[in-house]
Structure formats: structure tokens, C-alpha cells
Design goal:
Oligomer: single chain
Structural class: alpha+beta
Order of helices and strands: EEEHEHEEEE
Distance between the termini: 16 Å
């Protein structure tokens, strides 16, 4: 299963033994982090049912780009699981080695409006990568579902 949103916003979902993976592409690191958010919430629910009418600032730090990406996804998973947030977009306020602060846009889960397709427990470090390519960047993260 894959999902493509424009030429510079892309991710693919792949199955692994008992887990699910995200292969994320972007011409910049900013787009990789944005596509990671979209890929995660594409797995969780139907993105088209989420309205970007509420905002939540999310800030995460890591020790390198891989750690930052895994921490970013885990913070989003926590916000979805513990507080009911469903995000579909964000505006980066800060992305530098190795910190991200973003104004995430979406809304809280509403029974009858949103359907949870996949319960994502965590992003893992197993086979996680962030690498520069001739087209920009490629990242891989395995999600525990």
C-alpha cells in the first residue's frame, strides 16, 4: 500500500513481520518530517476526515536525525493515544540538528466522524534510517502496531 501526495510529498507503507513500516521521501528534511506525520496518520485514520481547525505545538529533541524522527513519531503517537489528537498537517517553527518544533494542525478524535483503522503503539529504532539521496532524503521507520 502506498500513498503519494504531490511530487515532493511522498511516503510508502510496507508490511514487516507483525509490524508496519513507513518509507518516507522528501526533497528536504522538513518534507520528510511532514510526510512522516502524514504517513502515520494515514495509517491511523482517513486523513480526509480530519479538519485542520485546532493547533498544538509539538517540540522534540534527539541525538541525531534518526533519533529525532523516531522521537517525533512517538510524540505524535502519544498525543493521539493519550489526548485523542488527529493531525493532518503542520508548520515547522524550528528544524535544526537535532530539534523540531512544529505547530501541528488537526482536531481531536470524534466518534462517528473518525474511524481508527490501525492502532499504532510506537515507532521503533529497528532498521530506522534517514539518508540523503540524489533526489533529497529517504527515511525508514518500523511501527509497532
Amino acid at each position: 500500500m502506498s500513498r503519494e501526495v504531490g511530487m515532493t510529498e511522498r511516503f510508502q507503507i510496507f508490511d514487516t513481520t507483525a509490524d508496519t513500516g513507513l518509507e518516507i521521501y522528501g526533497t528536504t528534511l522538513e518534507k520528510v518530517f511532514k510526510n512522516a506525520l502524514k504517513g502515520l496518520f494515514f495509517l491511523i485514520t482517513d486523513l480526509y476526515t480530519i479538519e485542520a481547525k485546532e493547533e498544538e505545538t509539538v517540540e522534540v529533541q534527539g541525538k541525531d536525525w534518526v533519533d529525532l524522527l523516531v522521537s517525533w513519531l512517538n510524540e505524535l503517537i502519544f498525543l493521539q493515544d493519550a489526548r485523542g489528537w488527529l493531525f493532518k498537517d503542520y508548520v515547522i517553527e524550528k528544524l535544526e540538528p537535532y530539534t523540531i518544533r512544529a505547530l501541528c494542525k488537526g482536531e481531536r478524535f470524534k466518534k462517528g466522524k473518525h474511524r481508527i483503522k490501525t492502532l499504532v503503539k510506537a515507532a521503533t529504532y529497528h532498521q530506522a534510517t534517514v539518508e540523503e539521496t540524489p533526489q533529497g532524503y529517504r527515511a525508514v521507520v518500523i511501527l509497532d502496531v
